[in-house]
């Protein structure tokens, strides 16, 4: 029961991050990047397969090189 509730909570945060990032990229007054980070972090918590894939992308390598703190938090 707790596992289902946890996945549901992370899924709701992921959808909120997706909607917020889309609105943030359309409307310049709302920042979209924090919502995008929330979406990626939530998706990482939901799917271990996504986390493995994310760790191998060029974006992850770039983050490790230029933003090591953010990369450790998102990818590591």
Commentary on this structure:
The chain is an all-alpha fold and 76 residues long. The chain has one domain. The protein is 83% helix and 0% strand. The chain contains 5 helices and no strands. The chain has helices at residues 2-26, 33-46, 48-55, 58-66, 68-74. Helix 1 runs antiparallel to helix 2, helix 2 (33-46) packs across helix 3 (48-55) and helix 4 (58-66) packs across helix 5. It is flat, with a radius of gyration of 13 Å. The model has no long low-confidence stretch (mean pLDDT 85). Keywords: Membrane, Transmembrane, Transmembrane helix. The chain crosses the membrane at residues 12-43. This is DUF454 family protein.
Number of DSSP helices?
Answer: 5
N- and C-termini, Cα separation? 28 Å
The helix/strand class is mainly alpha
Q: Would you list the SSEs in sequence order as H and E?
A: HHHHH
Number of domains: 1
Give the averaged pLDDT, no decimals. 85
Number of strands: 0
Strand content: under 5%
Radius of gyration using CA atoms only: 13 Å
Inertia-based shape: flat
Query: Low-confidence segments, ≥5 residues, pLDDT <50?
Result: none
Specify the biggest β-sheet.
none
Helix proportion range:
over 70%
């Amino acid at each position: 029961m707790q596992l289902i509730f946890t996945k549901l909570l992370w899924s709701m945060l992921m959808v909120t991050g997706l909607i917020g990032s889309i609105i943030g990229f359309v409307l310049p007054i709302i920042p979209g990047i924090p919502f995008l980070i929330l979406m990626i972090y939530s998706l990482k918590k939901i799917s271990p397969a996504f986390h493995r894939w994310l760790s191998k992308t060029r974006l992850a390598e770039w983050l490790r090189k230029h933003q090591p703190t953010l990369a450790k938090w998102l990818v590591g």
